[in-house]
Amino acid sequence: MDVGELLSFKPKQNPKRDIADEEGESEVERPGKKQKQFLTSNVKPSQKSSATYIAPPVVEVPAKEDLLKLLEQDENNEGLDETSLKRMILNFDKRVLKNQELRVKFPDSPEKFMESELELHEAIQLMHALATVPELYTVAVEQKFISTLLGLLSHDNTDISVAVVNLLQELTDIDTLNESQDEAAVLIDALLDQQVCALLVHNLDRLNEAQAEESEGVHNTLAIVENLTEIRPEVCLQAAQQGLLSWIMKRLKAKSPFDANKLYCSEILSILLQGTPENRQLLGEIDGIDILLQQLAIFKRQDPKTGEEQEMMENLFDCVCSSLIHVPNRDKFLKGEGLQLMNLMLREKKMSRNGALKVLNHALSGESGRDNCTKFVDILGLRTIFPLFMKTPHKLKRKGMSAEEYEEHIVSIIASMLKSCRGSQRSRLLLKFTENDHEKTDRLMELHFKYFDKLRVIDAQLQRSNDEEDEDEIYLKRLEGGLFTLQLVDYIILEVCASGAPTVKQRVLHTLNLRGGTVKTIREIMREYAGNLGDGSESEAKEEEKQHILQLLDKF
Prior knowledge:
Elements: H1 3-8, H2 19-38, H3 60-75, H4 82-105, H5 110-126, H6 137-142, H7 145-151, H8 158-171, H9 174-179, H10 181-193, H11 196-204, H12 212-231, H13 235-241, H14 244-253, H15 260-274, H16 277-285, H17 288-297, H18 307-323, H19 327-335, H20 338-348, H21 353-364, H22 370-378, H23 382-390, H24 403-420, H25 423-431, H26 435-464, H27 471-499, H28 502-514, H29 519-531, H30 539-555
GO cellular component, one term: spliceosomal complex
Keywords: Coiled coil, Nucleus, Phosphoprotein, Repeat
Protein name: Beta-catenin-like protein 1
């Protein structure tokens, strides 16, 4: 044959089976794989047949078409109205009842109730359509759908309970709830009336996170709690009291590698503690402070390996800060050697340093921080804090915290120690301001002028703006603009001038004259500070502090 014939030559194609058979095989096999995976926890898989391929019977085709129709209905939910929803719920109830009856009748024969379980799982999947029409939530509640659904959280087959969790997560998605707020309120009321948090926690205890589906179930459970707390903040207390706080602490304590669920646990814990005093108390009662310190100790000499792990570390630091607002937890923090851990983190100069600085500030502040202040001086904390006071680290070394935030924490810690320390600890603290030719006093004056200049800029901006704001709003803006740090710096100046060596006051006055500053500016700032004390909680302690500041002003 010539070249043209060679190029156009095609060998005879003789397929082993026709295309229709191949399509039939692929379309029938896929659902089979899903069914096998779904039933792994309850039914033993059947042995694979070694027989040669046999094309699927024609009888399977209608089942395939039914599935396609169901899928289309799931994708285009324009047809889902009140009537069709009631029909779906009725079908759902029937499948729940059928599965319960078969499980009771044949408890030791999984093959007898396997098919009903598959039907139940399919019914749960179909109910995802409800999440696309939140205006029908009221109908679902009236039809007792929520109580039936929550009852399945305790189903013997965890695949069913996980499917329920996934559905609840979709129903309570925050964007969906915001679409129809009145109907969403009805749904949330129904969930809370049925003790949804307690049921979810009970289900969490039996999920095995080594399996991907159940691990996803844990994640979705936490997502449900987050959704509910965002709409109803009071759910934070209910969830904690119904066992979620204890479960989270147990999950954090578990010696397992870092994963997404551990990160999510730290986020939910932060939410639970942030605005709920009762949860802070409960955390202390279940030894939560020790668990948090143990988890943070991992990062004292090594940085987090990933951005997600760093986020978890920051969440845990925030949790410690929130917990220290509850006064008895400060004693637990002290006895758990929290101060030593924070001191070590500050010395190691790792990424944990920023969080340690925030925690230390919370632990030492206020009247209830007196014991911690004394202990911090005893463990040679002054050797750690004053090098940081002298030089604010470069932005790369204090990643995630601005220079102003950093200096505010440092200055606040020193001010707290001056307020609380007595005897030899106070003497050691005051002595620091005379060391190395008063270098720390010079640094104090440097910070005074830095934040005084910032405040002047803010005051000028406020004068130029035409916004009608009350005095409290203006004062808050000035505090955020640098006034708060300036007040702390000037308070330290008054304390060291009144109680320290005479040379300290001479150095302060000399620096003021050199830089064109005046004693009057310090007096005005501190009088304003004293004038805003004495209100709110611990009013007696604040009143004493106010009188103390006025006495310092008289001496200055």
